[in-house]
From TrEMBL:
Transmembrane segments: none annotated. Residues 618-812 form the INTS4 8 helical bundle domain. It comes from the Eukaryota. Pfam families: HEAT, INTS4_8HBD, INTS4_C. Residues 822-945 form the Integrator complex subunit 4/Protein SIEL C-terminal Ig-like domain. One of its GO terms (biological process) is snRNA processing. InterPro entries: ARM-like, ARM-type_fold, HEAT, INTS4_8HBD, INTS4_C. GO terms for cellular component: integrator complex. Keywords: Nucleus, Repeat. It is found in: Nucleus. The lineage of its organism: Eukaryota, Metazoa, Ecdysozoa, Arthropoda, Hexapoda. This is Integrator complex subunit 4. SUPFAM superfamilies: ARM repeat.
Amino acid sequence: MTSTSLVLKRPHSVIEVVESATSTHKKIRIQTTAKSSSVVGKLQQSIALLENVAQQNSKELLEVLVKIADELVLDDCQLPDLYKAIKKLLELFRQERDGDTTIRVKILRLLADLAEVRIAEVVNALIDEIIAVLKHEKSQKVIAQGLSSLHKIGARNLNQLPSTHVTKIAHFAQQQLISESHHTQKNALLVLSAFVALTDAKKGVIDTVGHYADSQDSGVRAQSLRSILCLGERGAILSPNLYQRAVDTLEDDYECVRKEALRLVFQLGVCHPDYMISCSNDDEEEMRLIDAAFSKVCGALCDLSIQIRVQAAKHLGDMTQVSSEFLHQTLDKKLMSNLRRKKTAHERGAHLVASGEWSSGKRWGDDAPQEQLDTATISLIASGACGALVHGLEDEFMEVRIATVDSMCKLALRHPDFAVTCLDFLVDMFNDEIEEVRLKAIYSLTAIAKHIVLREDQLEIMLSSLEDFSVEVREGLHLMLGACRVSTQACLLMVVQKLLDVLAKYPQDKFSAFGCMRKVGQKHANLCMAVTSHLLQDHPFFDSAERDVEDPAYLCILILLFNAAQNLPPIISLFPYVTLKHYAYLRDAMPSLVPELPIEGASTKKSIDDLTGSNNSREYLETVLAHINEIFSIAKDRVPLLKTAQDNLKRLGEIDPEMLGTANFLETFLAAQIQIEQLQSCTASQHNRAPLKESLAQLVRNCLKLQHVFSGLTYGDMLLVKQICLRASALHLVLIVRDRSQSALGPCQMLLQTASDISSFLDEKQEFQPDDLTTSLLNQLGSIVDPKPGRVFREILPLVQAASPVKMPPPNVEIKMCVANILEPCPQMSQDNVIKVTAGLIAALPFVAEIDNLQDAQKQDMRIKIKYPDQHTHTVVPKLSDFRKIMTEQGAHETNVKLRTTILLSHSVWTEASSVEITLCLAVRPGTELELCKPAKILFAPKPVRRGI
């Protein structure tokens, strides 16, 4: 049954309501009047144009075909029109069989575009017709385009194509391989690799495809190797016998061929690592295929093309099954043992006996002819493997060096002995002139830190990089030093002293330095115990002056020693009395950096992890939700009880960080429920004016918060959110119309858009059923002929007044909430740090914030809002390059990022310094911003211009 459409016109929009026979709800689609012409009409117009120019010259026909291809839209088109268009195009194709080939090529491209409708009958008909017309075609250019069109049609509809049509396409492509046209051969190989049955691949199709690797045309050679790889990706088993063919193709003159050959060598080595192949022409020695492939990939690091060098460097990191001797040879440019394997005495004697020649008798076989040595034939380790990674690290292009460092890290993680060998090379990369290379080397060394112990000479190079101007490099080094282990007391003192010296130069690094000292103390408890008195400047006979506990350098030392004492409690006996007092203060001030120690007078409160657990929090959350469902059954005075439950959910999110997203999502959902119920009572009275504007604005903000701040929602959660947003939009329109003090066009349009959104969602996810109010609102909106605000208001008013609450979503612990934490400027206003600037000029203020659970799509909506004391607000849009993923010892975090930028402050003259609030927010809608953190306050004092004498 075809769908029925009802088009309703408005001054600015068109609402099209489509009611399907297979669904119980209606789908609302909003379109602008400029696009009000139906798609079916466009296809019919295209057919009419083809009929009008059919008898004219080829130039006009080609122009019409190009115009149709550029403007073709196939949404919701009818089958008769599609069949008519296909029939007309094929008719033109046959008429132009002896004419211009360009027209026939364009027709084949247009036929491939018609397959985007993804209707099985149309796709099957297209395939049959294209193959039928190509069988009588003589132009190789047209045949090549027909193969390309078949590949395009089949690739887009592979899941719904019957096996007979897939086989028909593959058989036709195989027949065209005998063509003399290189372009036809290339497209035939492309189609054959995509559609040939994998059972046929075992019967010689791979050998047939591989035969074209010796073609005269470089494109055919490259496509032959690419087709073999495509068959392997589809599941066909690639024989190790293809290795020699791929190796021979590595010497090709064309880059495209060498690129595909390198991929094939890599793939064969990874798929058949333990297959033994001959390593010389005389077949005396054998080696593993992964080792031979590794050597060939290493040789590609000396290729003239930068793309191939980058590709080879990346492939090396994935060949983790290579033998240790080959792996270590990549860091040594000297050839091992002249590339010869030492033979045993028994083997040498057997060789002399086999020679069968006699001499004077003094020595057996002493006059036998000496062998002619050829390194190309007796090499066990190809010369390309010798120093290959060193060549990659010394490459002139940044991309090659980065890929090489990344591969060294992957190989070192699988081979701990190689991690120790490559340590010096990674440390040398700290002096690279490109910041990205330095960062990649730092993070790679952090990843393999568990396999290595740093020496003093290595530390000197690392610590010299701590004075780098880039803050990312300095923070990366802090992370690396916290992950590594040092060997001696001198090394530990060197690390601590350098960190303190650099901290004096860059005070903004104190938080990163604190985290580094915490990790260093945890990993070097014994070494810290030996230098405790030295670091605290504790004299054995005289009392030293008490140091300032707010001094960042002193805090670093205390954090180091306190964390070491956690693993080695005897260190506490070495602390002077004043240090114990400082511990009691720091334990309360910085509980995340200072661990709990058995010291008298300190706070004995347990951490949140000890007080809460995932099971306890989940049980409490389910109890709260059960109470909320019971409260909804109460007819009167349930709002105070719901607000109490809302406070409990908010408190749960503050106590247990793992439940932050789930608890805040449910709390926001409940807050929207309460606001809807409170505002719903205002719709009953005809003379009651709308409530305060802030109440409606807060309801809209909560709905937007549910849609944009939380991630990890299930489809059921999304449906509940869309339903409550639909109720809020309907209530918003009703109250605005009753108020009569502002225009209702905006709320009406928002209601229609929300209804269209939920209708599309229900159409895609037909397994979910909406509640009764949502179904009634969608049906009512679909039946309105002229959706003006007044008419919509009268139709939905009874539904809004009688609406029952939406059920609460089930507890979903996978929900994450996007939250931010401003590190700089400090969120607490400092009375001593006042930013002074001449009025009218600009003051640059560094801004650093950490944002958790930020999705990539939300980065474009991120804003920095600056609010001055006179309520003037300025918004800053950070660049996408200002967002950097937060690095950990396990690698980059997926959704946690750090925003580092500079904001500009400016204002007219103030009489005294006043606070300026800076916060992070998401601009999800013009005029609506969702704050992600509490504002940071700074003192700003624009001063008048001083007049000279």
